[in-house]
Amino acid sequence: MAAEWRKIRGILDELINNSFQAGATHVNSSIDDNGDKFTICVTDNGRGMSPEVKAKAESMLGQPRRPELEEYYGHLAGKTAKSSGLTIVGMMVDDYTLESEKGVGTEVTVVVRKE
Fold first, then answer.
1. For the range 51-55, what are the long-range contacts, defined as Cβ-Cβ under 8 Å and sequence gap of 24 or more?
2. What is the CA 72 to chain-centroid distance, rounded?
3. Which end of the chain is more exposed for a tag (fewer CB within 10 A), N or C?
4. How many CB atoms are closer than 10 A to CB 35?
C-alpha cells in the first residue's frame, strides 16, 4: 500500500505543480478511495489552456498505462525540474478527464485502478 500512496502523491504533486505554473491563486484537490480505484481531482483558477495546449496535455495523459515503468519513473512525477511530468502521470493512470478554458482555469481528474 505504501508504494500505491507514493504513486498517488506523485500524481497529485504533478497536477498541483502544473496549477501553480499556470498562475493559479486558488487550487482545490481531492483524492477519493472508491474501493477498486482512486480518483484524483485538481481544479484551479490558473490561465487555462488554449485548444492546442489542451490537445497536447490530453495526448500526454492519454498514453497507455505502463505499470512496469511506474517504480522507475513514478518518483519523477511532481518534481518541478521535470518537463515530462504530465507524460509520467499519463503512464500511471487508467483514465482521465481534462476541462480547461483559457482565462478561467483547469480541472484535471485521473483514475488509478488499485493493483
1. 54/98, 54/100
2. 17
3. N
4. 7
**2-113: which CATH topology?**
Heat Shock Protein 90 (3.30.565)
DSSP per position, the chain? -HHHHHHHHHHHHHHHHHHHHTT-S-EEEEEEE-SSEEEEEEEE-S----HHHHHHHHHHHTSPP-HHHHHHHGGGTT-TT-TTHHHHHHHH-SEEEEEEETTTEEEEEEEEE--
Rounded to an integer, what distance in angstroms lies between the CA atom of residue 6 and that of residue 21?
A: 22
| pTM, full prediction | 0.85
Cell of 31: 483524492
For the chain, first and last CA: distance in Å?
9
What confidence score (pLDDT) does residue 69 get?
65
**Averaged over 78-85, what is the pLDDT?**
55
Please tell me the least confidently modeled range out of 8-17, 40-49, 58-67, 80-89.
Answer: 80-89
pLDDT of residue 81: 44
pLDDT, position 71 = 61
